[in-house]
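Morning run. Coffee first, then this:
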Amino acid sequence: MKILCVADHIDPLVYSVNAKERFRDVHIILSAGDLSMNYLGFIASTLNRPVLFVFGNHNLKHLELFKRPQHFLRDGIRENFHTVNFFGSTYIGDKHYRHKGVLIAGLGGSIRYNEGKNQFTNFQMFLKILKLVPGLVYNRIIHGRWLDILLTHSPPYQLNDRDDPCHKGFRVFRNFMRVFKPAYLLHGHVHLYDQNAERETRYHQTRIINVYDHYVLDVELDGGGRFRRKNKKAAAHE
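And here it is:
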């Protein structure tokens, strides 16, 4: 199954009349943030595929539109799986989503560096992770694994991040990967202006990929349509 990932920059290869042909074999689109909803709407209507996204720390004009209405607040797993869809796109910030056997969860926003919207301290991000725990436990019981893909805007600390205050990653993402072992963590936030720049690293059992601009990820499904984790040796990052 092919996944088109986008983040941070409107890519002319995606925002194109040829996009439908170029990405005809894509099954789903994941956006790691900092893109306008009009751009995501174009992708959704052009490719006619599900678009899942989290917000970053820019392009937040429609952030309030996607915040969960208060009458949907409930305890437990039902709350954890409720999603909101506008512009042909489904917001999965602090939520879970299952697509054709692939278990996905989203955590948007960046590290707090000023008083801007959708910025969080490590402790605040830890509290957001706690909201995902009921769904993670459900996945473990029903599907035999916690999670396949964690979609974030920011990278983990010292893994694809930068030293400046704005682009530092979240330390709690490292803890998340050690405990819940997603096969992939897909993020944006760190711009890659060199086409040869390194996009990927590994941490324990997780492949961490910077999907800035656009990136096509090919994941394997078994005969029953369930996610198959590739058997690769983890990197030495500790």
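The CA atoms of residues 86 and 135 lie 23 Å apart. Good start to the day.
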